[in-house]
Every structure is written in C-alpha cells, then in structure tokens.
TrEMBL record:
This is Cobalt transport protein CbiM. It is a multi-pass membrane protein. It comes from Candidatus Pseudoramibacter fermentans. It is found in: Cell inner membrane; Cell membrane. GO terms for cellular component: ATP-binding cassette (ABC) transporter complex. The keyword Transmembrane helix applies. Residues 1-24 form the signal peptide.
Length: 246
C-alpha cells in the first residue's frame, strides 16, 4: 500500500470512528433556535466571504500541491472527530475541542473555513450537534475566528523566533479559547436583555472556562504531537506545504 493510500484509509477510519461518538443533542455549538433570525442571517452573511475565499484557497492547493490533498482530508476528519467529543460543562451544556488550529497552520485559515462548514453541516444533520439556522454563527466562531487567531499567532511566533513546538502549542491553544470567547459574545448578544450585555458575556465565559481551558491545553498538546508525526511520516507533503524547509 502506497503512502497516499494509507492516508486515505486513515482518513476513512477517522470518519468512521466519529460515528461511534455518542450523538447527544446536549452540544456546545449554538443549538437550533437559540439565535433570533436576524442574528442567524447576520452571522451567515459575514461567514460567506470567508467560505468563498476558502474554496479558492483549496482549489489553489489542489492545483499546486495535489499530493497534500489526503492531508487536507485528514485535517477535515480531525476537526470532525475532535469537535464531536463533548464533555459536560458546569451548567448542563457541553464543551469540546475544535481541531481547527491544526488545519490553519498547515493550509491557512481560509481553507479551514470550508472544512469547518462541511463539518458543521454533518454534525447538525447526523449528530444533532449545533443547528442549521445557527450554522453561520457556529462557522464564524469555530471555523473562521479561531483559525485566523491560530494562524496569526503562529506567524507572529515565527517572526519572534519562538521554539516551533511551543509556537504550535500556543497558537492552537489560544485559537481554541478564542473560539469560545466569540461564542460567548454571540450568545450574550442574543440574550442579554435581563442582565446586560457585559454581564451576560462574562457569565458565559465563566461557564465555559471550567471545562474549556483544560480542553484547549489538551488540543494544543495533541496538535504538537500530530505535527511531529507528520514531519516524520509525511515529510514530502510537509515540504510541499512549506512547513518543512526543502
């Protein structure tokens, strides 16, 4: 079996594993019906340009670095699986890792917007994780805001000559946490009439902090381990992406 065939088999296995995750509707993505229609449209409209940009980015990757496409598929499968693993938060809601930081470092944040919208569609339809009306808001927080922060922090770390592994850890960890800051903002904006926007946002962030901070740290560590593995076992693909010097 060739290396590319092994990547395809591994990606298929990852997708299959995700169906073994308990599909409870008690999920962290903003659920169906939680946001008013006006905000559903607002976040959807904001997300569209990034998704279009992402399609062009993926087309460029396919044309210039076709050998990296199995790796792109695995990045999408990784997001699907890791964001489907949910743990209870302190109020009965759930928290989960995002997995988008890793894809942003490898392929850029625009491509992750497309991977994210695909993942969110499958999760909303198959796992009752999130919702179709709230998919714009969920896409913006998980597949746009978080990845762009991860990518920006990683590039900043490169310019400051940080240790590569430390740089990956910080970028993926803080990208995950920023996703939940945006989610808290979205939820507070939608429902703050009784307590005020600032208090609602602080409350939401405090709720998620108990579970999300350790999850973000775990995601950062997992991302470092995966990058190390890819550098050892997918060296040619990583060179094609410019992640390893040729």
């Amino acid at each position: 079996m060739s290396k590319k065939e092994m990547w395809v088999v591994a990606a298929s296995l990852a997708v299959a594993i995700c169906f073994g995750v308990a599909p409870a509707a008690n999920a962290m993505h903003i659920m169906e019906g939680y946001l008013p229609l006006s905000l559903c449209i607002f976040w959807g409209v904001i997300a569209v340009p990034f998704i279009v940009w992402g399609f062009f980015s993926i087309r460029k990757i396919a044309n210039n670095n076709r050998r990296t496409m199995p790796l792109l598929a695995m990045a999408g499968a990784f997001i699907f699986v890791i964001s489907s693993l949910k743990i209870p938060s302190v109020t009965g809601s759930c928290s989960h890792m995002t997995g988008t930081g890793l894809g942003a470092l490898l392929f850029g944040p625009a491509a992750v917007a497309v991977l994210g919208i695909i993942v969110l569609l499958f999760q909303a339809i198959l796992l009752a994780h999130g919702g179709l009306t709230t998919i714009g808001a969920n896409c913006f927080s998980m597949a746009i805001a978080g990845p762009f922060v991860s990518y920006g922090l990683y590039k900043l770390g490169e310019k400051l000559h940080w240790n590569k592994k430390v740089n990956i850890f910080i970028a993926c960890t803080l990208g995950d946490l920023f996703t939940y800051c945006v989610t808290s903002f979205q939820m507070a904006w939608a429902h703050h009439s009784n307590v005020g926007f600032a208090k609602a946002m602080v409350t939401n962030m405090a709720i998620y902090a108990a579970t999300q901070v350790p999850l973000a740290i775990i995601e950062g560590l997992i991302s470092v381990v995966i990058i190390i593995a890819l550098e050892n076992y997918a060296t040619d693909e990583m060179k094609s992406l410019g992640f390893i010097e040729a």
